[in-house]
Amino acid sequence: MSGISLKKLGPGLLFAGAAIGVSHLVQSTKAGGYYGFGLLWALVLINIIKYPSFQFGPRYAAATGNSLLHGYFKLGKGVLITYFILSLLTMFTIQTAVTIVTAGLAVQLFGLDWDIAVWSVMITLFCAAILALGRYKLLDNLMKVIILVLTVSTLFAVLFAFRESIATEGMGSSDGLIQLLPTDAAGIAFLIAFMGWMPAPLDISIFHSLWTVEKGKTQKNDVKTSLFDFNVGYLGTVVLGICFVTLGALVMFGSGDTFSDKGGVFAGQLISVYTTSLGDWATILIGVAAFTTMFSTTLTTLDASPRAMSTATNLLGVKRIFKSYLFWLILLIIGTCIILFFFVSEMGLLIKVATILSFLTAPFYAICNYLVFKDADVPEKARLGLPMKVYSIVSILLLIAFSGWYVSTLF
Q: How many angstroms separate the Cα of 149 from the Cα of each of 78, 127, 282, 287?
């Protein structure tokens, strides 16, 4: 690691914790289950395309000491207001969605058949207590443990799945390697959603920049360390994405099972399919891997959204109460609980709206993340070289084309 200690890692692991969620556990597992290894190309390609936009978050924060939101504000007040409105429209739905999946897995793992909404509220309050009491330092330390458990349990699950596949001579038929591109409308829609949420929506780059700034309050940040930290987290998201595709391909492909779009139901189906194929012993292993995956996402998003909204409102100069991290944390908890108890039947529609916004706004975040490096406050050594500029522009053009492709499927 050439002098870079484990203590200096943190924001990159928080990024991984936020990114490795529905896109991995649900979408990647389904990709493997429906298409075998046929969509691995899509997973790798979209991670390559999104890499510059995600990297610019910690790069800008380490270089300037400010988050991307400060850069957005310098681009124009309207840019920051646009971000604020988009976040307000999606933060409650996204938090509710990841919490429901986490709660569904908790039911399967702990065997307590309580109402999914009750489990969701308990998990939300538990995460809120961690954040309110420990703030960033506890989150930073806890995430290192969570990511370690997640990685080890997932790798073991893949190892055992491979062993079982060899023993039974045929789990995960190689036919999946042939279908590299779905041809039916439902398959194309799935491919677009799979790539759009892999490894995460681009606004997480803003969260990453905020965590990098927070890390800098306790120890000195430099661009080299921040980029190393980011690359570790980003590579981890790619590897674990491949792992979940592999699990789906080895265990589910060719089984004929279809999976529910409802988080709680899908959680039960996921555990059931694995235990049926690998044996009851796999319940704990798969349960721990899956629950840790979603708990990390629930925890990090519950911290990130309030952190981003409080920073945005501070920059916009609104009334004092709206500038508080705790205010936005409490508001997010209340909004999540309201959806859980009163609008959970509309979750499908709400998630669809959030998904559409994530697709359509990807070019917005990519362009803004690129433009902030024209800021005179960015040190010369942290500015983008010609290769990275070209890479970023190509990525932006591909994201615009990808968003256009998605819109064309809606009509």
A: 42, 18, 16, 12
